[in-house]
Structure to design on (236 residues):
């Protein structure tokens, strides 16, 4: 199976401080994968490099058959990568509807595209808040809006950085339900989160980073069978 996303030998730095050292990651279309690791180990920097927000200094990133390292962030977005960033970063002075409509696109002619009505059906809470300003939403509603906004671009690859961070348990369960539904629809998803048990149930394979290096990779079955990996690299 050919890779939709293929990262090889990724090196990224902030000024003179190198953060990523030879990171490798591969995802096929329709897969769900995770990036795991303690805080500060390079997960968000990897995502920022994929999205063109922190350009890499070495290695390569290929997406849908094209080499994209060196592309601008907006060009990468148009190519079909959508990011739900840590902290959500929705527009607080726009309504829910305006946040969603502002990102509506179907550049790759998806046969069943994400539309306003489809996002409202997926997140009924947002339908009831359509005319509310984003800044007036709860944290859970803002996360749903951030996911819905990304889906409105009809991405080939959806990336979620800290998918359930700071959410109440019931809201967190709703986010997991939505991610499971996205997987069932064939959406390719890369997830960063700390809830390993839920990620094992959701994802096909996992990559663990430590100090900017890949220290473990494997399937959900392999990760589930080796809790020593959890304790050694994830501190859980």
């Amino acid at each position: 199976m050919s890779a939709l996303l293929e990262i090889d030998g990724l090196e990224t730095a902030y000024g003179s401080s190198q953060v990523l050292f030879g990171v490798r990651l591969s995802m096929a279309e329709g897969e769900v994968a995770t990036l795991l690791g303690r805080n500060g180990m390079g997960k968000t920097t990897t995502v920022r490099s994929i999205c063109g927000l922190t350009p890499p200094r070495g290695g390569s990133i290929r997406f849908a058959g094209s080499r994209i390292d060196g592309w601008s962030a907006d060009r990468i977005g148009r190519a079909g990568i959508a990011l739900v960033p840590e902290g959500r970063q929705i527009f607080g002075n726009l309504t829910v509807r305006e946040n969603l409509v502002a990102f509506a696109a179907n550049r790759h002619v998806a046969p069943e595209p994400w539309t306003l009505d489809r996002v409202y059906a997926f997140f009924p809470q947002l339908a009831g808040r359509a005319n509310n300003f984003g800044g007036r939403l709860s944290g859970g509603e803002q996360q749903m809006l951030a996911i819905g906004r990304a889906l409105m671009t009809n991405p080939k690859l959806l990336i979620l950085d800290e998918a359930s961070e700071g959410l109440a348990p019931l809201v967190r369960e709703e986010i997991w339900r939505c991610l499971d539904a996205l997987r069932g629809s064939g959406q390719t998803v890369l997830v960063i989160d700390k809830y390993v048990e839920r990620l094992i149930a959701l994802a096909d394979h996992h990559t663990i980073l430590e100090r900017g290096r890949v220290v473990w990779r494997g399937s959900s079955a392999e990760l589930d069978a080796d809790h020593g990996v959890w304790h050694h690299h994830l501190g859980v």
DSSP finds ten helices and ten strands in the chain. The chain has a mean pLDDT of 93. The domain at 1-79+197-236 is CATH 3.40.50.300 (Rossmann fold).
